[in-house]
Specification:
Blueprint lengths: L4 E7 L22 E6 L8 E10 L2 E7 L1 E3 L2 E6 L5 E12 L4 E12 L6 E8 L12 E7 L3 E2 L4 E9 L7 E6 L4 E2 L6 E5 L5 E11 L4 E10 L9 E4 L10 E4 L5 E4 L2 E2 L2 E2 L3 E5 L4 E5 L10 E4 L5 E4 L10 E6 L4 E7 L8 E4 L5 E4 L2 E2 L1 E2 L3 E5 L4 E5 L10 E4 L5 E4 L2 E3 L2 E2 L3 E5 L4 E5 L10 E4 L5 E4 L10 E5 L4 E5 L10 E4 L5 E4 L11 E5 L4 E5 L10 E4 L5 E4 L11 E4 L6
Parallel strand pairs: 11-17
Antiparallel strand pairs: 1-9, 2-6, 3-4, 3-7, 5-6, 7-8, 8-9, 9-10, 10-12, 12-15, 13-16, 14-15, 16-17, 18-51, 19-20, 20-23, 21-22, 23-24, 25-26, 26-27, 27-28, 29-30, 30-33, 31-32, 33-34, 35-36, 36-39, 37-38, 39-40, 41-42, 42-43, 43-44, 45-46, 46-47, 47-48, 49-50, 50-51
Length: about 575
Amino acid sequence: MSLPRLSVLLALLLGVLVGCDSSPPSVLSTTGTMRLAIALPTAAPGDISRIAVTVLGDDMAPRSTDLVLTDGIWGGILGDLPAGTRRTFEAQAFTASSTLRYRGRAEDVTITAGATGSMTLTLHDVSGPPPFTNEAPIIDSLVASSAIVAPNGTLTLTASAHDPNVGDTVSYAWTAPRGIFSAPTQTSTTWTASTLRGPVSLSLTLRDSRGAALTVSVTVKVSTGSETEPSWTSTGDMHGARYTHVATLLANGRVLVSGGNIHNTAVSWAEVYDPATGRWNLTASMASARQWHTATLLPTGKVLVAGGSNDSDYVLGAELYDPATGTWSPTGLMSAHRTRHTATLLPSGKVLVTGGASGGVLASAELYDPTTGKWTPTGSMSKPRHSHCATLLANGKVLITGGNEYSYWSTLEAEVYDPATGTWSPTGSMSTSRSAHTATLLPSGKVLVTGGDGGGAGLTAEVYDPATGTWSPTGSMALTRSEHVATLLPSGKVLVTGGSSTTGGAERTEVYDPALGTWRFTLSMTERRYRHSATLLSTGEVLVAGGLGLRDYLATAEVYDPAMGP
């Protein structure tokens, strides 16, 4: 009988996710913010309810966090780790009765200021299981000197392992889809990257003298950091073309794409993108076909999909996607049919849904409570809206901008929702009416609004200041855009991609610099797109997928690396 154990992958990544309906951006820390991901092998017992990770050091106070199970991976974030040597990572896994079941640690780990590394641990069973016949080798730690390396650059990998069977010897084999290992059969080696940029999975296979084997891996990113090289790289195609779909960054760093439209038919199928491999994998389909819906990542790691329309009607019900099982389940009915509405995750963990269309245009709003799975009405907006934007401000309130008030009549008025009172209050109006625009929360706490349909809105941009409730103009874009996407980059700049135009869609992309209030072209996408999705990945790259192109629906996807662009 095999000795149970847990293989623990600690991927040390920096990342933020900010968009039209998003929370305030995280502050990137040069001291080392760590995203922890613990993968449990299929052979491990399923009775673990909590995993805690603690970082220790002689010159630092202990830092601890509990991880969350998402898509079969225990994940979480441990931030502001002081740089230094001789750091110890200790992980403990507990059952539902708070019994310690597994434990593991790695010692003498170095944390370098401004750098990101990767580590793999193994947790050992402390309950004393029955004797085994032949147990595979056990990896105690795997440390990569950096998670980012330049093309043709080199990093160091060091592994520590043992075999529980007395007398067994262990062999080592390092492999990667590209690049060269200096010592592919040793415990320590260097890896020299190729010229191809992007994520690369580096794997180590341990095999004992009787054939039992274990494979672990870490993912590193090949990037120059240069601002003069091409910025866009094609990645794997989706399983089918789609537009008006929704993309959601999951807690494990993968991207869920749900619903959408192809050839004027709404679809129910969903798929997940893995940045480490550049591939899409089909997951379970939703119960209802949907387009123009919303998808919101909840604190539990599940995704709430609400509203939208299919070929014959509007969809009243909502569904939850569980990345741990890859399945969907129903969760309550909204009070009204909605499409082209907004959904915003509030600091309380509830989700605010506003406006939308369902025959007429709606002013009503409602709240979803993940703890009960129920929807309750809240205060209505001052006017009906669809194709508007909702932005969570740093003070916890929600700013609503623009939208179509009646049919295609867009508005310039804005208002603010206060979750503490469930009421709305007017705030300053924009300089022009807009719908199908974007609204992005900047690191300063201000909100950048760009483009859209309306009276000359397509080229213009303006900034809202919550402190004064006023708007001020900022630099105009070079291209007219509506139904485009704006993405806040880790640098604090804003990338705008695609958008509809008389030629079908824009391939030119622009970057806004809040410090200067100006726009600058970056290199073009490989395809013209609008009604597409753009997602900030945990690596700091931006994944763009699907949409409408010059002549057809798109299944293609591509990745923008801001380290290589303006």
